[in-house]
Write a structure and sequence with these properties.
Layout (H helix, E strand, L loop, with lengths): L1 E4 L8 H14 L4 E5 L5 H5 L9 H6 L8 E4 L2 E4 L14 H10 L4 E5 L12 H7 L3 E6 L3 H5 L1 H12 L7 E7 L8 H12 L13 H8 L4 H4 L4 H16 L2
Parallel strand pairs: 1-5, 1-6, 2-4, 2-5, 6-7
Antiparallel strand pairs: 3-4
Helix pairs in contact: 1-11
């Protein structure tokens, strides 16, 4: 399965969730490839890779016929990003074609996308990513700005992408960085359930300082602090994800 975590909004946990959903699937015995499809290269750097020799640009241009993905943990590989990645250099189906030979080697390929919108007028990186996908998820943080446009964003994605990629399925919204002492998560979950029934994950990831600490060490929380609350939450979230995408 090829999957994207997208949101036009910045800083809502796309990269963190891509890394940890992927790492959790890998721990469950699935073979996983994480692809950094964002020129910010947060997934690459957050995975402890500083100067990648082989990047997404090499994959897209086919400049090197060997797919030199990096192994970060058992069952978990990373295809590094590049600061030169921009949609203008590539065609809509470029990633779809480039991933074709890799598909057979992985149970899951997860694409980390930049915070860009989708529209019918110009090609963006998330659009190129979604064109290659079977599935997408929208991560949210429980705050007013993150939640208010989430459902219309999902609708627009379907409107623009689905005619060109008929197999694309939306598997749901989920919350990260949830402060359990605040009522906001409950309020926003109910709000989302009203506008998008059954599309909100029941499980969520709580705010946990271990997440930031792990990133600065270039590790996943499963390597850095396997029993922290975010690690436990990710295990539940991942089980729900598997159920929802069966
Ligand atoms: N459960 C959590 N607990 C604490 N901090 C978190 C949690 N999830 C994410 N964060 C922090 O929130 C910040 C934003 O997360 P992240 O970089 O994954 O968002 P993003 O959507 O990928 O951002 P961008 O739009 O810039 O790509 C990061 O500093 C990350 O460490
Ligand atoms: Mg990111």
């Amino acid at each position: 399965m090829i999957l994207s975590l997208i949101n036009q909004k910045g800083g809502v946990g796309k990269t963190t969730n891509t890394i940890h959903l992927g790492a959790c699937l890998a721990q469950m015995g699935k073979s996983v490839l994480l692809v950094d499809f964002d020129s910010q290269m947060d997934l690459t750097h957050g995975s402890g890779i500083r100067d990648p020799q082989y990047t997404i640009i090499d994959l897209l241009t086919g400049s090197d016929k060997k797919f030199r993905v990096r192994t970060r943990a058992e069952n978990l590989s990373i295809l590094a990003g590049s600061s030169d990645l921009t949609a203008g250099r590539f065609k809509r189906d470029s990633l779809k074609k480039a991933l074709e030979p890799l598909k057979a080697h992985f149970d899951y390929i997860l694409l980390d996308c930049p915070p860009e919108g989708i529209n019918s007028f110009s090609l963006s990186l998330p659009e190129i990513a979604l064109n290659a996908c079977d599935n997408f998820l929208i991560p949210l943080f429980p705050n007013e700005y993150a939640v208010k446009n989430a459902n219309s964003f999902m609708g627009r994605v379907m409107e623009v992408i689905k005619p060109k990629n008929k197999k694309l399925v939306f598997s749901g919204f989920f919350f990260g960085k949830v402060l359990v002492t605040s009522k906001k998560h409950k309020i926003y979950s109910e709000m989302m359930e009203k506008v998008a029934p059954k599309l909100m994950f029941k499980n969520f990831v709580r705010q946990d300082s271990q997440v930031d600490h792990a990133v600065s060490e270039g590790m996943t929380i499963f390597q850095f602090s396997p029993n922290c609350r975010a690690a436990n939450d990710y295990r539940k979230l991942t089980k729900e994800f598997i159920k929802r995408t069966k």
